[in-house]
Amino acid sequence: RYLKETINMGLWYLKDTDMSLTAYADADHAGYRDTRRSTSGSVQFLGDKLVSWSSKKQKSTAISSTEAEYISLSGCCSQILWMRSQLTYYGFQFNKIPLYCENKSVIALCCNNVQYSRAKHIDVRYHFIKE
Question: For the whole prediction, is pTM greater than 0.90?
């Protein structure tokens, strides 16, 4: 019944619509009082339409706000890479996909090929964002 009544609903893109991917990530630090774990949040847009979003409790306790934001950006990056692979299959091409994060330390960590001693504790599984 639901499918029958909502068959005409969906995201509609005009032929000349901008089909760029854009993503935003954010996190709190130690927001859960009982475990002191952080919450990751991210949104992904295709053109001007929101197509994916996430809000999750992080699996590990972040020592700093930089680590919490870095983990959040990592999850956002994974999602945007998956979206790019799916859309590429359908013939879309993406050169650079902007990922936005408000934490300057995370931006520096991602953009520089230097391994900072203060960020050494961040798990290797999150460092793929540098690539």
Answer: no
